[in-house]
Design goal:
Length: about 150
Amino acid sequence: MVEIYKMGYDVWGDNLPYEEYITMCQASNKYKKGKWYVLEATDTKQLLSSLIVYELNFSEDKIVKGIGSIATPLFLRKNGYASLLIKETINKLEQEENCNNFFLYSDIGIEFYKGLGFIVLPNDSQKYKDSVCMYYSKENDIDSISLDIPDYF
């Protein structure tokens, strides 16, 4: 897990000393609530990207997940690893759990996630100034479903 936490240190470290940041991640209740997915090189087993998925089932008839903490080591970014991991994770959850509703909060701008099929929720549905809530579904248009917009996860 330390290797996974390390991937996001430059973005989420908030100027904390490295050891303090890792300790904070290890103690995080938020990180314990989700399920981590990783992409690794098949030959070397090097971790290439990671993300966490949270259960957001606040609808009785729909399975809803939140994707967060998407990270790739700094020296491996811009190689498509995070995109591949997001696509594969969504495909897995669609097939194995019949999940067709995904939310995420983007802290890096919207274009990266729009390229993966996510849409930006309308301004009146946004809850935060610095993070944009986005939605993805192959089956449902955001206007055709009635889901509460999740808090940042």
